[in-house]
Amino acid sequence: MFNSVGAMSALSALQNLNASIAETTNRIATTNRVNTAADAPAFWGAISSARGDVNTLRTVETSLGAGKGLLDVTTSAMSSIREGLEDMRELLTSALPGGADRATLQNGIAAIQASLTDSVNSAQFNGTNLLTGAGGLTTFEIVSGFSNSAVQTLDITVADVRGTGATTAFLGAEEAAAIDGNTDSTVLDFTIGTITDANASVEIGRALGLVDTALDSMEGAELTVGVIGNLVESQQRFNSSMIAAKESAISSLVSANVEEEASKLTSLQTQQQLAIQALSIANSSVSSVLGLFR
Asked: Which domain does 284 fall in, by range?
């Protein structure tokens, strides 16, 4: 009976050691000391909530990145448009004096007009173009944050970027009076090739008025895009800091000290070998006693 009790005790100890070894091995493999609710019932709710927040913030991060991409593309297009308008203004100024070769200057103006249209149409990112408002787009929403279970957004009113005119955005203002024999011209389609010296001052002045109107209209658009862009960058920094803070908090609750766990595993394995030996001795003693009754 004494030896049988010893064998049972050694077996129980071995079973407990095997369970501890399995748990420690799992902690080393996952680098976590908390892998299920059973590992830390008191903190599992907080851990799950923080992980959910991080997943949401990752989604916000993606949205902010897409929004920043769109704003960067729009800014680049507007910069190109501004340069084109300023070049156009120089050509028109060159066309004012008597005897100017307006037909040749018109070739340069036509090339700029084509590039302006291309810039507007190419200001697209992920299917969205703030300068054309294609698809009836009136508001573009950027998911910018997550707080107290509520999603926060930055909304861009498309009319504040492109104006309310035609699909050519702030380039669509018309001049009712004639320019080079044409009425209702815009900065994208006026011509100066056949304007005479007698009419140059008036008609080229009208063309310059179209360019100046476009440049003035761009100021508001550039301001809108710039302000929203700064807000997006600020939110990106804040969002990143929130992700880092929550991941740090999760890590402090669940992460295992791998070095300590490895040392513990070595100790447990030594104890396991001793328990196996103790069980073997106990079983041998029981067999010896039973042999006396054979």
From this structure: 2-25+258-291
